[in-house]
């Protein structure tokens, strides 16, 4: 038995998949703790894992999304991200115990966790949910999904890593001093890690994004690991009653995006679904979507809170969402055609991948929903999603292939190799 510490930070989609992974490792005989924000303590504990606290709760302070900076003020956003990471560094140092035998690191926590592993003289394994290593196949995922050509993609990828190094500079300096390590820049430690050829297991599927041929040996794509939910979990009665009352509805939600914009988005969503002549389920999320802002005649709408996508999405005729990595995978796994409404970060990248696969409509950028034709555009995309047999067939075929993968199982095997 190995005492494993998983560290994950960010929004729900950045954290929840590691609960399922942790449960698989626990079932394999390991003792597993998951360090993350207080917001997710109950989620971690429900999965049978030990919860350890990380600071900088994402509901109040998230990289690049604090309310004190204007969306276009890149310098302010960078400062806020760096402050978030600096606070996170101190929490990661406290989360590890002397008997920790292995660190499993998310993309956000890996640049900090490498220093901790060095100080504790224990192995670590990077488990990102998105690709970050430069490649000629595609531009960095945060660039919006537009290819710059093979040379340009690789150059942009290297630049992206240097920007990340800058974000972690202050946190790295403080953390290494706190751990009693000699000074080293994030770039130095990153290059040292890359030169060592350490394995990195990416938690997405080649069904959606094939592994780049120009990646070094050890950078592997193993398939998704999924949020934990109880084996006997069922949808709430109110959802089952709604599903039984008519044809399969369309799901609409923006996860941790669009905080505080609930009234406008709820009204827009209701109008678009009514125009498309479909029933709908709105997941409140951080935007606070609700039917309170809709007219009484919208009886074909239901609002709900947190419900496992694995239970809900297979019952939908289509899903409309922001295309975070986890939600993208969940919709594909359910065989549901998607209407992508990407907001920021890696979401336009995954939206474009879904569309290229044929399992989604053309993306409707979130910003375009504010235009005068926002309702019409969304309604038209929903109509395309629910009436196209080709999109349903592509989504069904992708779901079949995803069902044959076991990303968490691949991580368990890698862990066993590391701790022998």
Topology record:
Layout: E1 3-7, H1 12-15, H2 17-27, E2 31-36, H3 41-46, E3 50-53, H4 74-95, E4 102-105, H5 110-120, E5 124-126, H6 149-167, H7 169-179, H8 186-195, E6 200-202, E7 219-221, H9 237-244, E8 250-252, H10 262-275, E9 280-283, E10 301-304, H11 309-312, E11 318-321, H12 325-333, E12 338-340, H13 347-357, H14 374-387, H15 389-403, H16 407-418
Parallel strand pairs: 1-2, 1-4, 2-3, 4-5, 6-7, 8-9, 8-11, 9-10, 11-12
Helix pairs in contact: 2-16, 4-7, 5-7, 10-14
Describe the structure.
By secondary structure, this protein is of the alpha/beta class. It folds into two domains: 3-224 and 405-418, Rossmann fold; 237-403, Rossmann fold, CATH 3.40.50.2000. Helix content is 43%, strand content 11%. It is built from 16 helices and twelve strands. The chain has a five-stranded parallel sheet with strand order 3-2-1-4-5, with helices on both faces. Strands 10-9-8-11-12 form a five-stranded parallel sheet, sandwiched between helices. Strand 4 (102-105), helix 5 and strand 5 (124-126) form a beta-alpha-beta unit. Helix 2 crosses helix 16, helix 4 packs parallel to helix 7 (169-179) and helix 5 runs parallel beside helix 7 (169-179). The N and C termini lie close together (10 Å).
